[in-house]
Write a structure and sequence with these properties.
Layout (H helix, E strand, L loop, with lengths): L19 E2 L26 E2 L12 E7 L8 E6 L4 E5 L9 E2 L12 E3 L8 E3 L1 E2 L6 E3 L7 E7 L2 E5 L5 E5 L3 E4 L15 H6 L57 E3 L4 H8 L1
């Protein structure tokens, strides 16, 4: 089992109470109480932090006061105090420390944590907290250690290479934050034991090949068997895993995708 070393990184333990609230966890159930996502439930009790992804305080500098842990996300968050006295939580990038100043503005410097419209960000810059549409709030690139790269600017759009290797066009009036999301060691952790998965709210998963034929398309056979199918299937017979395409053919965002994400061996070769 391995964990992220928080000592020397986090500066505060208890969250800012005015920005916390209780949250009922869905544990994989929809509004009718039916399980729509299996293997979720239990887990340690959590306190939800109200993290600001709207970034609607334009032109008002904010000073970072603390770096804190958030149980609902993988990156670190920070309590910032704006010059007008308001405090909010923000998702922090690497290399930002307490006392640093962050700014959301069209003319903000190109330093980690500052937010600018994409048309003001040079090609080759790493960004995170990317809006899909102007003033819609940060939606893309929010996990620990990830970043998107601005690779082109043309015809009112900026082309970004996302962490999934997909290249996507975003309106260049949309805002994005400079830098990479903090806690880059998160991907190196090893859960290590079943109990730790239960603390995280992850329930056990039974392999389809270990089931009976009536319970799963991969089930049955004497002893250990191959699946006997050309493509892997889910419990409901839909293609799954190993690079199977599951995207809706006529999805609304298809015109904005310049290059589809690479999967399987192709993606591994790209990362090397």
């Amino acid at each position: 089992m391995s964990t992220v070393s928080y000592r020397g990184v986090l500066t505060h333990g208890e969250p800012h109470k005015a920005l916390t609230k209780g949250r009922k966890r869905g544990v994989g159930r929809n509004a009718d109480g039916r399980i729509t996502m299996r293997h979720k439930g239990g887990g340690h009790k959590r306190v939800s932090r109200d993290v600001d992804f709207a970034y609607d305080k334009i032109g008002i500098p904010a000073r970072v006061e603390t770096i804190e842990y958030d149980p609902y996300r993988s990156g670190f968050i920070g309590l910032v105090c704006y010059r007008d006295g308001e405090r909010r939580y923000m998702l922090l990038p690497k290399k930002v420390r307490p006392g640093d100043t962050l700014l959301t503005s069209e003319n903000a410097p190109l330093t980690p944590g500052n937010r600018l419209p994409l048309h003001k960000i040079p090609v080759g810059t790493f960004v995170y907290n990317v809006e899909i549409l102007p003033k819609s709030g940060a939606k893309l690139v929010r996990s620990a250690g990830v970043f998107a790269e601005v690779i082109a600017q043309a015809d009112g759009y900026a082309s970004l290479r996302l962490p999934s290797t997909e290249v996507r066009k975003i309106p260049d009036r949309a805002f994005a934050s400079i830098g990479e999301v903090s806690n880059e060691e998160y991907k190196l952790r090893n859960i290590g034991k079943a109990g730790r998965s239960r603390w995280l709210g992850i329930r056990p998963t039974v392999r389809g090949t270990a089931m009976n034929p009536v319970d799963h398309p991969h089930g049955g056979g004497e002893g250990r068997q191959g699946r006997g199918l050309r493509r892997a299937k889910s419990l409901w017979g839909k293609p799954t895993g190993k690079g199977q395409k599951t995207r809706t053919p006529k999805k609304y965002s298809n015109p904005f995708i310049v290059s589809r994400r690479r999967v399987g061996k192709k993606r591994k070769e790209t990362s090397q």
